[in-house]
Amino acid sequence: YILTRMEAEGLTFEACLADAQRLGYAEADPTFDIEGNDTAHKLSILTSLAFGTKIAADDIYMEGISNISQADIRAAGELGYRIKLLGVAQKTDSGIEQRVHPTMVPTASVIAQVHGVTNAVAIETDILGELLLSGPGAGGNATASAVVGDIADIAKSRPGFQHGPVFGLPARELRPYKKARMRSHEGGYFIRLTVHDRVGVFAAVAKRMADNEISLESIVQHATDAETEAQKTV
Fold first, then answer.
1. What kind and span of H or E run contains 118?
2. What average pLDDT does the structure give for the chain?
3. Which of 3, 52, 89, 100 gives 47 a disulfide partner, CB atoms 3.0 to 4.6 angstroms apart?
4. Considering just the CA atoms, what is the radius of gyration of the chain in Å?
């Protein structure tokens, strides 16, 4: 909701957060909503469902959206991306990777079309390709529906009822979780710099990246209001 409003209306993060709290989409203490905690809790359950492992919410790399600014929103748009808060779980050679953080997704992608209070789960399958499940993720009706569904599942799980285990198998049979270190993750990154607008700055940035074996896909430069500064998006 917050990132959608920031992009569509050019509002600040603080203004969108206040509106979300007024509408009941964010708590009075919004820490869990904006710092990724709520997404991480949901991701830990989805990871267990997907891979049959024990829940390990404390092992999730977590980064929220409180530092996202209008400059980030505009820079992403110029490069053909939209910023979304994603929770990602995937198997790697070193274990299962779980991470929550703002991500630049291509504007033409399906996940980029998820707006407002809508939540979505994208599943990559080996036969059917990518599946996307979406629906309301905040507000009174969505919360009440989820609570009633959980109560119904608990009621159906009592002796005498034919009802499968919540995680597909008994909790005691869930496999131990092996964590993949976040530092082993490889991917593209977006860096926004405010630098002195003078000869040699671009070359210095490119050299520092090259020294650390980082290739640059694109660089966009804009002048700022200050006469001696410029913004570079790498």
1. strand 118-124
2. 87
3. 89
4. 21
Spatial neighbors of 170 by CB under 8 A, at least 6 apart, are none
- What residue spans define the domains of the chain? 1-185, 191-233
pLDDT at residue 216 greater than cutoff 70: yes
CB 85 within 8 A of CB 112: no
Question: Domain 1-185, what fold?
Answer: Dihydrodipicolinate Reductase; domain 2 (3.30.360)
Closest CA to 191 of 203, 210, 205: 205
Handedness of CA 205, 206, 210, 215 (dihedral sign): positive
DSSP H/E element including 89: strand 81-92
* 42 assigned to active site: yes
Judge contact between 117 and 106, C-beta under 8 A. Answer: no
Residue 103 CB contacts under 8 Å (≥ 6 apart), including other chains: 83, 84, 85, 86, 88
Q: Which of 42, 54, 91, 179 is catalytic?
A: 42
d(CA 26, CA 139): 9
Q: Of 108 and 197, which is predicted with more confidence?
A: 108
Cβ neighbours of residue 7 under 8 Å, at least 6 residues apart?
A: 73, 77, 82, 83
Beta-carbon contacts of 33 under 8 Å, excluding residues fewer than 6 positions away, are 20, 25, 26, 27
- Tokens representing 190 are 């977006």
